Amino acid sequence: MVVGVIAISAAVIGSLRLRDIPDRAIGHSPPPHAVSAPRERLVEYRLDGDPGRHAVVSYLTPEGHVVDADVALPWRTQAPISTLTAAVGLAAQTSGSRLRCEIAVDGQSRIRREAMADAAVVNCSVPAV
Question: Hey, which of 33, 38, 55, 62 would disulfide with 94, CB 3.0 to 4.6 Å?
Answer without folding.
Answer: 55
